[in-house]
Design brief:
CATH architecture: Sandwich
Strand content: 35-45%
Organism: Flavobacterium fluvii
Structural class: mainly beta
CATH topology: Jelly Rolls
Number of strands: 12
Radius of gyration: 15 Å
CATH superfamily: Jelly Rolls
Low-confidence stretches: none
Protein name: WxcM-like, C-terminal
Number of helices: 1
Distance between the termini: 17 Å
InterPro entries: QdtA_cupin_dom, RmlC-like_jellyroll, RmlC_Cupin_sf
Number of domains: 1
Pfam families: FdtA
Helix content: under 10%
Mean pLDDT: 94
Strand order of the largest sheet: 1-9-6-11-4
Shape: globular
């Protein structure tokens, strides 16, 4: 599983930094933007995969863990810097957990919401990934 963290360009200033996301910052056109906030520390978000959609997750405030699974291996990444983005490609299972107080997770998505793009059961995800790897 290839994990990719991108640097969000920032302009440093003693009065406060500015992070800038423009066309050359990410590898896809942004078709949907949303953010998670007021998530209790004991809650888990995500728990699904996408067939087509790609995402970038950014911890705008606070921190949280992202658990990624490809059907064979598992990786846990802690996001806690607003100038770093985690790229999550399609066909990866994702779970978000361990939210700090005041954490805000910004999500930049390559597609608009489409329920048919979701795989919401982990066993179905493993079957889907295994059947697609056999057809390549």
């Amino acid at each position: 599983m290839e994990i990719k963290i991108i640097d969000i360009p920032k302009i440093e200033n003693p009065e406060g930094n500015i992070a800038v996301i423009e066309n050359d910052t990410i590898s896809f056109d942004i078709k949907r933007v949303y953010y998670l906030f007021d998530v209790p520390s004991s809650a888990k978000r995500g728990g699904h995969a996408h067939k087509k959609l790609n995402q970038i997750l950014i911890a705008l405030s606070g921190s949280f863990d992202v658990v990624l699974k490809d059907g064979n291996s598992t990786e846990k990444i802690t996001l806690n810097k607003p100038d770093k983005g985690l790229v999550i490609t399609n066909n990866l299972w994702r779970e978000l957990e361990n939210f700090s107080s005041g954490a805000v997770c910004l999500v930049l998505a390559s597609e608009v919401f489409n329920e048919e793009d979701y795989i919401r059961d982990y066993d179905d995800f493993v079957s889907y990934v295994n059947s697609n790897s056999l057809s390549i």
